[in-house]
Amino acid sequence: MKKVDFRSDTVTKPSREMRTFMAEAAVGDDVFGDDPTINELQNFAADMFGKEAGLFCSSGTMTNQIAINVHTQPGDEVICHEEAHIYRYEGGGIAKNSGASVRFIRGNQGRINPDEIIDNINPMDDPHYPRTAMVSIEDTANRGGGLCYNFEDIKTIAEICRREKLILHLDGARVFNALQVSGVDPKLYGEQFDTLSICLSKGLGAPVGSLLLGSKLFIDKARRVRKVFGGGMRQAGIIAAGGLFALKNNIERLKVDHDHAKRVGEILSKQAWVDKVLPVQTNIVVGVLQPGICERTIVNQLADRGILCVPFGKGRVRFTTHLDISMKDIEFLEKHIS
Ligand SMILES: *Cc1c(COP(=O)(O)O)cnc(C)c1O
Fold first, then answer.
1. pLDDT of 98-143, one tens digit each?
2. For ligand 1, is residue 132 a contact (CB within 6 Å)?
3. If both were cysteines, with which of 4, 73, 243, 252 could 206 make a disulfide (CB 3.0 to 4.6 Å apart)?
4. What number is the average pLDDT over the span 303-332?
5. Is the CB of 65 under 6 A from ligand 1?
6. What spacing in Å lies between the alpha carbon of 325 and ligand 1's midpoint?
7. Where in the chain are all domains bearing CATH 3.90.1150.10?
8. What is the mean pLDDT of residues 242-264?
9. Is residue 199 within 6 Å of ligand 1 at its C-beta?
10. Cα–chain-centroid distance for residue 74?
11. Whose CA is nearest to atom 6 of ligand 1?
12. 292 alpha carbon to ligand 1 midpoint, in Å?
């Protein structure tokens, strides 16, 4: 039976061209800094966002967790949205890896409002409070249904962080989707953050990997932490090559995913079991079900028809478009969904 897989933008398989590029990549021992492909990828991405250096890691969870570990001391507080990936989907890593605590911001569909930050910074002169060390924001916001930050808000958040001497970190698992919509220059965007985590294995379609970007000093510290976390890899240029290929070939085409997602949104909104569809800005479509309908029932029913999506909290399902979803797949969805 034909299946169309809207579960995540991580389900893509490397294309023939990408595989060839990977197979032919020059490699070396990256723990010694000898892998030319990894070095090229790190420099290429750092340059793109105007940062001094980059570090190739196995996953976005690892890049985020390394950043938190470098930026905090045990007991420090990390400010993030209450539905942030770094808290919700990283296995309690903030506490487990770094002994840090979390301060939640309610925000607006996965995004933090700048004025909410000020109210949540602890006074430094009162020993009752944990030290507020950093702010982490997500762009696009996964739990917000793939919504992007307004760039003016990011600039305001960055100003607040500079003034209050807080580190600003970006969980940019889907930052290229955000930049596709906003049209902001990546260098100007990168300038707002101390550190950025970007994923190669989401919309960009590489099989493995994420990058941590920041100052040379930060990346030197991050490299030590990566080793401690067991993430020092040897001839990993063979996988990094997929990421390099993706950065050079698969950014522009994200627009196609966004157009497909809008179409998925229109199709979903016509279904009797759907109450409404959250605004679609990028490649994520969240359907809010009619009251009393269980998301797992819908996910199972659709799977029986060859349509794969995921439950996304109570009464919600999520569809994600990606490199391996074609217009034909959208037509299949329209034909088989009801
Ligand atoms: C996918 C994702 C990550 C990283 O996930 P990994 O599977 O560990 O690469 C981080 N943040 C957000 C918002 C994500 O969607």
1. 999 999 999 999 999 999 999 999 999 999 999 999 999 999 999 9
2. no
3. 243
4. 97
5. no
6. 20
7. 253-336
8. 98
9. yes
10. 25
11. 60
12. 30
pTM attached to this predicted model: 0.97
Ligand 1 centre to CA of 61 (Å) is: 6
Pairwise CA distance, residues 6 & 87, whole Å: 24
Q: Which amino acid is at 155?
A: K
Closest CA to 77 of 98, 96, 108, 107: 98
Q: Which fold has domain 16-249?
A: Aspartate Aminotransferase; domain 2 (3.40.640)
Q: Are strands 53-57 and 316-320 parallel, antiparallel or unpaired?
A: unpaired
169 lines ligand 1 (CB under 6 A): no
Alpha helix locations (H) across 192-294?
Answer: 216-228, 237-249, 254-269
- Our answer on whether the CB atom of 172 is closer than 6 Å to any ligand 1 atom is no
CB-neighbour burial class of residue 115 (10 A; exposed 0-12, middle 13-18, buried 19+): exposed
**Residue 10 vs residues 6, 28, 84, 157, 158: alpha-carbon distances, Å:** 10, 27, 18, 29, 30
Q: What is the DSSP secondary-structure string of 77-97? A: EEEEETT-HHHHTTTTHHHHH
Domain 253-336 has CATH 3.40.50.720: no
- Which residue ranges does the chain devote to CATH 3.40.640.10? 16-249
Pocket of ligand 1 contains residue 142 by CB under 6 Å: yes
